[in-house]
Amino acid sequence: MNKKILTALILNIIAVTATTAITVSYYFHSNNPLVETGFDSYKFFTTDSNILAAISALVLIPFEIQILRGKREKLPRAAIVFKLVGMTSVMLTFITVLTVLLPQYDAGFLLLGTAFYMHLAGPLIALVTFLFLETDSKIRLPETFLALIPSVVYGAVYLVQVVVIGEHNGGWSDFYTFNKGGHWYITMFVLLGITYLIAALTCFVHNKFSK
């Protein structure tokens, strides 16, 4: 039996189940004072990135089952590249929480309850499966740039809501403090750089473990 694929399958099922349960729970109860309804949770990159990572895990599950049943030999390249995109997004969440938010907010608020999975466990599951378990295909350099797409899209929405519209006009508050001191352009440049660095470094390790 392919132990790597079996382990990846189990972790992917956990990721899909946990993310679904937590996202649904937001519609009934939330300890986050910025979330009044379940729909409000989608304004956070934490929620969006975990959902994206869960979808990328869900895509791989049927192929991993087929491999374990002897119906196919390897995972599709496109599915692994998609996993790269989802993994990079949640790892950006992980790094942002540890380096930007943790010094400003209470640790319990960021790492306890559902936040433990969304900020810590979920990103690490995506990282481990991509780096060491789902290694059928090597990632090519041009494909690493695809990992920037979620951050670019979210960054554009955040910029419009926080800077262009503004909280007083019905937009979002600067809950990630990306516009602190009015320096949103510096923050966005740094975040995109970090995002690509995550993608490039993890792909380097992934390729080392690829067949």
Give the topology, please.
Layout lengths: L2 H23 L19 H24 L8 H25 L5 H5 L2 H20 L7 H4 L4 H17 L18 H26 L2
Helix pairs in contact: 1-2, 1-5, 2-3, 2-5, 3-5, 3-8, 5-8, 7-8
Write a compact overview of the structure shown.
It is built from 8 helices and no strands.
SSE arrangement, N to C:
HHHHHHHH
- Relative helix content: 55-70%
Oligomeric status of the shown chains?
A: single chain
Number of beta-strand segments: 0
Overview of the structural elements:
- The chain is mainly alpha-helical.
- The chain contains 8 helices and no strands.
Tags for this model:
211 residues; mainly alpha; 8 helices
